[in-house]
């Protein structure tokens, strides 16, 4: 019983301090209106290249990144998602999770000791997507479950459509 309590304490305290404090900030992309909550201990780490228009954020400890961006839909939403997942696999990611509906998709995978979680939602009457991706070490999976959930739930459209 004591061992379980100690394990629970270790897991709980391994969560990011910003997650526990609830002091996340809202990032809103000025061009596409894509918005997502970002943990307070993540700082802007430059623009997103090749994905559309957005920003990458890096954790203070340098071990993980959150990327948020908006983009026009290329073809149909389903074809757009299929192309993204195919691209992940072509880059060597083993897709371990995938869920898709007509207006959102989420998927994740592993590669060389790293994990990613991505979510895309259809916005602006189907003309655009709002996107978020979390990359982190596989060794840190337990402490990132709650962060991935918050990112996915907070993803939205906060602004004008392109």
Provide the low-confidence segments as ranges. 1-21
CA-based shape: globular
Number of helices: 4
Question: Structural class of the secondary elements?
Answer: alpha+beta
CATH superfamily: Mog1/PsbP, alpha/beta/alpha sandwich
Strand content: 35-45%
**Sheet with the most strands, sense and barrel status:** 7 strands, antiparallel
The rounded Rg comes to: 16 Å
- Enumerate the strands of the largest sheet in spatial order, edge to edge or round the barrel: 3-4-5-9-8-7-6
* N-to-C span: 56 Å
Average pLDDT metric? 86
Which CATH C-level class is it? Alpha Beta
Structure description:
Helices cover 28% and strands 41% of the residues. By secondary structure, the protein is an alpha+beta fold. It has a single domain (2-157), classed as Mog1/PsbP, alpha/beta/alpha sandwich (Protein Transport Mog1p, Chain A), CATH 3.40.1000.10. A 7-stranded antiparallel β-sheet has the order 3-4-5-9-8-7-6, with helices on both faces. A 3-stranded antiparallel β-sheet has the order 1-2-10. β6 (94-100) and β7 (104-111) form a beta hairpin. Residues 1-21 have low confidence and may be disordered.
Task: Produce a short descriptive summary.
With 162 residues, this protein is α+β, with helices and mostly antiparallel strands. The protein is 28% helix and 41% strand.
């Amino acid at each position: 019983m004591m061992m379980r309590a100690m394990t629970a304490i270790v897991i709980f305290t391994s969560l990011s301090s910003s997650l526990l404090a609830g002091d996340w900030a809202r990032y809103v992309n000025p061009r596409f209106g894509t918005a997502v909550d970002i943990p307070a201990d993540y700082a802007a780490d430059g623009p997103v290249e090749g994905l559309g228009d957005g920003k990458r954020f890096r954790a203070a400890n340098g071990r993980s990144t959150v990327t948020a961006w908006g983009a026009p839909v290329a073809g149909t939403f389903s074809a757009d998602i299929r192309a993204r997942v195919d691209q992940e696999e072509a880059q060597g990611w083993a897709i371990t999770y995938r869920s898709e509906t007509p207006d959102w998709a989420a998927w994740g995978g592993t590669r060389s000791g790293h994990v990613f979680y991505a979510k895309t939602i259809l916005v602006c009457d189907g003309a655009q997507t709002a996107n978020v991706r979390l990359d982190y070490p596989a060794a840190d999976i337990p402490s990132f479950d709650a962060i991935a959930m918050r990112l996915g739930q907070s993803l939205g459209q906060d602004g004008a459509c392109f």
